[in-house]
Structure formats: C-alpha cells, structure tokens
Specification:
The protein is α/β, with parallel strands linked by helices. The chain has two domains: about 120 residues, Rossmann fold, CATH 3.40.50; about 170 residues, Rossmann fold (3-Layer(aba) Sandwich), CATH 3.40.50. Helices cover about 55% and strands about 10% of the residues. The strands form two sheets. Strands 2-1-3-4 form a four-stranded parallel beta sheet, sandwiched between helices. A four-stranded parallel beta sheet has the order 6-5-7-8, sandwiched between helices. Helix 1 links the parallel strand 1 and strand 2. The longest helix has 28 residues. It starts with a strand and ends with a helix. The structure holds iron/sulfur cluster. Iron/sulfur cluster binds next to helix 14.
Length: about 375
C-alpha cells in the first residue's frame, strides 16, 4: 500500500515511521500551503470547515504523488466529523480517484472494526512486531511534545526573534531521522539541547495564554496561521489544551475525553456537542484557575461545536475574570489580520496585568472596590 494521511503538526513524522515499519510505503504529506487549501476549497462544499478543505487538498496532493490509500482518524459525536470520510470519498470518486480509504475510529468505540483495519495496515508484521513499532512511535511522539513545550517556554524570552523556531526545526529534524529507541533518546537530548542554547532574556516575565478550540486548527500551524509562533514572538508563553500525547490518552485510548475540562464545563454545557466544543468551555475555566492572563479560542468558520462554545465565552470571561479572544478561521483569514488582532489582545492583557498588580500594591481595605471594577 502507498499510504497518505492528513498533515497535523508533528504527527506526520510519527505516522511515516509507523507506516514504514509496518512494511508499507508512506506518501508523507507536506505541510499544507495556500495551494493545498485552494485545491481543497475548490472541490469542497462552500460551508465545509477549514480542516475538511485542507485535508481534501492534502489527499489530492498525496494521490497525485502516487498514493493509493488514505488513512485518517474518524471523528464521532454530533458534528460533521463523523461524516467527513464519506464526503471526502464521494468528492474524490467524482474527480476520478478511487483510493482505498481507511478511517480509524477510537479502538474502544469500535474494537472489532479497529482490529480489522490495523490487521490490514500492519501487512506482514506480526502483532508482536506491532507492539515494538507502537513503543517506538510513542517514544517519538512524547519527545516531539516535550520539544514543543520547551519551545513554548523559551520563545517569549528569546533575545533574537525567530531563534527558537529555528532551533525547534533543527530539533524536529533530528527526531524525524531517528528510528530505534536508542536513536530517539539520543535525538531527543540533542533536540532539547538545541533549544537550551537559545539566548534568553532572564528578566522577562511573559504573559501566559491558553490556546483552546478545535483539534486540527490547534495542532496544524498552517491552519491556525501560526498563532503559537506569533504570540511567542510577541512575548507570550502559550500552552495548548491539546497535544498529540494528551489527545491519544484522552480521546483515542479512552472513550471519556479530557475529564479535566469536561467536568468544569458541566454547569454551562452538560452535553456533548461534537468536536472539542465542550472542552473549550471547560478549558477557559481551567486556564482562569491556573492564573493565565488570557485565552485564545481557535474556531474554524462554520464549526458548530466551537460556535456553541463561543456563545458562552462572554459569560465565562466575566465570571472567571479572564479575557478571551475568538479567532474564526477560514480560507480568507490572513496572517497579517490575525497578527493585528493578537497584538491588540496582548496590549489588553498587559494593561490588565498592570492594573491588577497596582491593585495588589494598595492597602487591603481599598483593594475590594478596585478589584471589583477590573
Ligand atoms: S469539530 Fe468543527 S471543524 Fe472539526 S469537523 Fe466538526 S465542525 Fe468541522
């Protein structure tokens, strides 16, 4: 099989290794570009969400490079993710392509279906081999997440703009080439070392922002117009509510999702609305309680779960005293426009922090009236 799949952050590096170690050929997707999006948008229904369009563009590019099979994770719940695959299949067939399409549903949701599909994908490898393959893939995935977390800490304090991103790219290239567990461990250390070499402003006290929202736009920098890098270079330390390892633990290997956020969302949005809409509600509360300075919600245009979550944001922002910026993203969204909005949001958070610290310096008896005015 010649397999292609969606590009979602650092996932492609791990998927490529998994596929090749199972004895199949990986037609590794490139990071999406404006052309990928334009290609997907040309053949998608007008109101499809941006992850749908980018994935379709990525599949078309992969098929033109010789792929005969598409593998993707299937979503569930009441948003359109559950139908994604069938619509993609219909469009590709209409365009004259007839690839094998394998949608992997979370193993605990459809265990028999999952085993059948993995059996097909693992080709000549034994189930015993597969355990080793998954161990190595997990080691690489964990190292990539670790690298992202360190880059998010360092970027807002870098002395030379862009140095963290360059060090991060060198580090991921080391990990990309590593295959055996010992090589992955070595590459991880070398990659972290690259980031530790970045010269830092030791005095800086960066603002902290939580990035929440739909999974694809959180994880794929092209889809989120590089919001993480942009905020980092504006001096903001970010944390996403989803990393590949946490997603695997909460949403792939469990049927319950991320309970930390879901429990907090209960009083405001007690039912599952698909995608990560319910999580977005709980995540705002979680970041407010952790003392973050603000939250950026990433929402694909027309994404119902995030639209529902967005309707609660003004209330949550007031109740938990945390600024929330929602960025709706579609193929018209440009990086410059988003940067302008992010700059204004950073200014707002800085002013808020100054006000709050001046309130803290006031004598205790006058604090109450001031803080209630913030
Ligand atoms: S969660 Fe939103 S963006 Fe993702 S598939 Fe569902 S509707 Fe589309």
């Amino acid at each position: 099989m010649k397999i292609t799949y969606p590009h979602m952050g650092t996932l492609a590096m791990v998927a490529e290794q998994l596929i090749e170690e199972m004895g199949q050929e990986s037609v590794t997707p490139h990071r999406p570009t404006r052309q990928t999006l334009a290609l997907g948008a040309r053949y998608s229904p007008e109101f499809a969400c941006i992850p749908f369009k980018i994935c379709l563009g990525t599949y078309l590019e992969g098929l033109d490079r010789g792929a005969d099979t598409i593998v993707s994770g299937g979503g569930y719940g009441p948003c359109r993710a559950g139908l994604y695959g069938e619509i993609h299949r219909g469009i590709l067939n209409d365009l004259g392509y007839d690839p094998e399409i394998i949608f992997l549903w979370p193993p605990l949701k459809k265990p028999v279906d999952f085993i059948k599909k993995v059996n097909l994908l693992k080709g000549p490898s034994s189930w015993f081999d597969l355990v080793g393959i998954i161990r190595r893939a997990w080691a690489k995935l964990s190292a990539l997440d670790e690298l992202e977390l360190l880059a998010q800490d360092i970027r807002p304090r870098e002395l030379r703009k862009g140095e963290t991103s360059r060090a991060f790219n060198r580090g991921t290239a080391y990990l990309d080439r590593a295959r055996a567990l010992s090589e992955i461990a070595e590459a991880r250390e070398a990659a972290l070392q690259e980031l530790r070499k970045v010269d830092l402003d030791e005095e800086a006290d960066p603002l902290k922002v939580g990035i929440i929202g739909e999974i694809y736009v959180q994880l794929e920098p092209f889809a989120n117009i590089y919001v993480e890098e942009t905020l980092g270079e504006m001096g903001v330390r970010v944390r996403r509510s989803i990393y590949l390892t946490s997603y695997t633990k909460h949403d792939v290997l469990s049927t319950k999702g991320d309970l930390r956020s879901k429990k907090l969302a209960q009083p405001y949005l007690p039912q599952l609305i698909g995608g990560h809409g319910q999580n977005s509600v709980g995540d705002v509360i979680r970041y407010a309680r952790m003392g973050y300075d603000g939250v950026v919600q990433l929402a694909p245009f027309t994404c119902i779960p995030e639209i529902v979550a967005k309707s609660l944001m003004p209330h949550l922002s007031r109740e938990y005293n945390i600024p929330v910026l929602t960025l709706f993203i579609d193929e018209q969204t440009g990086r410059t426009g988003a940067e302008t909005r992010l700059e204004a949001f950073v200014d707002l958070m800085e002013q808020r922090r100054e006000k709050m610290s001046s309130v803290e310096k006031l004598p205790a008896e006058s604090r109450l009236s001031y803080s209630s005015a913030l």
